[in-house]
From TrEMBL:
Entry GO terms, CC: cytoplasm; nucleus; plasma membrane; vesicle membrane
Comment field on protein domains: A pair of annexin repeats may form one binding site for calcium and phospholipid.
Taxon lineage: Eukaryota, Metazoa, Chordata, Craniata, Vertebrata
Keyword Protein transport in record: no
Protein name: Annexin
């Protein structure tokens, strides 16, 4: 939390929130590409499908070839490879790899073969249906995706599992945490980049009166405002809140709420101000302590590899003083390590 505590203390002085790319959001320019995976200019789906089949048939399986193909093609190109593999071998590539690969490497390879929406849906399903609900996964996905991305994952969830994602959330969560998640599932956050100063002042006042100014917290006000406003508007609200309280909104949120609800809403706060930094922090926490959280490492690196992984790498180096790749080398091994490193791209000084 230390990085974000420092960040929120400087909100009043820095009046320009970061967008997903880390660029100044007030400039209105087209967001450049900050992914690490780019289209293979010499792409040939049939050739890649044949190479994958050969790698699978090799005694012991040629994981290096599988990594070089899957991690160096875009998601759109991988979907073409899946189709070509089916047409030329009569086999399903996902099922075939599932049967020959192992452990964390298998999870990463199969994740790369899903569309982004399918992968989000898969991760949410397993977060809800596994042994114990993985609240951090729900927060990460629903708290950082756009309205369109959430709509697509809901469709993918229904296609894959035959029920609405909201149904599973209602079965496995409760209280204000459930209310927060269901609000995000509506995919109706106001994503307008034009900031309404009057609305920001009003919202900040409502938050102040629902928390600090009274005995007891009106949680519904925090949930409603944070789950309905877009990133730019939220950042303006945070700055307006600084004028009402010396504590800063992030600290107030920690004081007024607790548990899963606090974690969910804090995800929205952190992601609104600096999404790459939020993911950098999540990656760091996944490798802190005894044993890495391999699921989180795979999910973030795969899902952000065509979005903003370059920015995440930059934030990680700035926040922790060393490249993300260095920690991956220390905490992972074998083919899983290799595929994550390829997705991260070349290490820069």
């Amino acid at each position: 939390m230390s990085f974000f505590q420092k960040l929120f203390k400087g909100l009043v002085d820095d009046d320009k929130p970061k967008d997903n790319s880390g660029k100044d959001s007030s400039k209105g320019s087209v967001t450049p590409y900050y992914g690490t995976v780019r289209p293979d200019p010499n792409f040939n789906a049939s050739r890649d499908a044949a190479a994958l089949q050969k790698a699978i048939d090799t005694k012991g399986v040629d994981e290096n070839t599988i990594t070089e193909i899957l991690a160096r093609r875009t998601n759109a190109q991988r979907q073409e490879i899946k189709t070509a593999f089916q047409q030329e071998t009569g086999k399903d590539l996902v099922k075939t790899l599932d049967s020959v690969l192992k452990s964390h490497y298998k999870n990463a390879a199969l994740a790369l073969l899903m569309t982004p929406a399918q992968y989000d849906a898969h991760e949410i399903r397993h977060a809800l249906k596994g042994l114990g609900t993985k609240e951090n996964v729900l927060n990460e996905i629903l708290g950082t995706r756009s309205n369109q991305e959430i709509s697509l994952l809901k469709t993918a969830f229904k296609d894959a599992y035959g029920e609405e994602v909201e149904h599973d959330i209602q079965c496995d969560t409760h209280g204000n945490f459930q209310t927060s998640l269901l609000a995000l599932c509506k995919a109706t956050r106001n994503e307008d980049r034009d900031i309404d100063d009057g609305l920001a002042k009003s919202a900040a006042k409502s938050l102040f009166e629902a928390g600090e100014k009274r005995l007891g917290t009106v949680s519904s006000v925090f949930i409603d405002i944070l789950t309905s406003r877009g990133d730019a508007q939220l950042c303006k609200i945070f700055k307006q809140y600084e004028k009402l309280s010396p504590k800063g909104f992030a600290q107030v949120l920690k004081n007024e709420l607790s548990g899963d609800t606090e974690d969910c809403l804090m995800t929205l706060v952190k992601a609104a101000w600096n999404k790459p930094a939020y993911f950098a922090e999540s990656l760091h926490l996944a490798m802190k302590g005894l044993g890495a959280n391999y699921g989180t490492l795979t999910r973030i690196i795969v899902s952000r590899s065509e979005v903003d992984l370059q920015k995440i790498l930059q934030e990680y180096k700035r926040m922790y003083g060393k490249p993300l790749q260095q920690d991956i080398l220390a905490e992972t091994k074998g083919d899983h390590e290799r595929i994550l490193l390829v997705l991260c791209g070349e290490q820069t000084a």
